[in-house]
């Protein structure tokens, strides 16, 4: 999904909920996957992000191609670095019932291109994205 200028694709304003504008979560990977393997998964799936999950299948974060590429090109990189070391945890996340205005504000403020949408159990049910 591409949201032109941060607007939801199904509405002309910030009214409505995230559920009305989110896409399927796309590829979900474990947090113990290496950065190299994650980049390969992204290339194969032709996506710019991956939902990162813990061993219980709960979403811990979302990583982007830009984030992983910048990390790989940095001085701290080795081919043994795991996603959990890059991605961190704790969000931000959105709920399907989050108001679009709130989600858009968070994405603009934190300069995010994608936010995982999680259910009450912490499982990814979608991803909210915006244009660059």
From TrEMBL:
Keywords: CBS domain. CDD domains: CBS_pair_SF (cd02205). It holds the Pfam family CBS. Residues 22-80, 87-132 form the CBS domain. Gene3D superfamilies: CBS-domain. The keyword Transport does not apply. The keyword Ribosomal protein does not apply. Transmembrane segments: none annotated. This is CBS domain-containing protein. SUPFAM superfamilies: CBS-domain pair.
């Amino acid at each position: 999904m591409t949201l032109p200028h941060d607007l939801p694709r199904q509405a002309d304003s910030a009214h409505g909920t995230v559920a009305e504008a989110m896409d399927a979560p796309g590829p979900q990977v474990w947090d113990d996957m290496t950065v190299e393997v994650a980049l390969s998964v992204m290339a194969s799936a032709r996506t710019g992000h991956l939902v990162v999950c813990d061993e219980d299948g709960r979403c811990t974060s979302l990583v982007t191609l830009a984030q992983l590429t910048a990390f790989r090109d940095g001085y701290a990189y080795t081919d043994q670095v795991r996603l959990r070391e890059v991605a961190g945890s704790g969000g931000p996340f959105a709920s399907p019932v989050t108001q679009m205005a709130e989600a858009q504000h968070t994405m603009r403020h934190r300069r995010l291109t994608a936010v995982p949408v999680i259910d009450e159990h912490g499982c990814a049910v979608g991803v909210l994205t915006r244009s660059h």
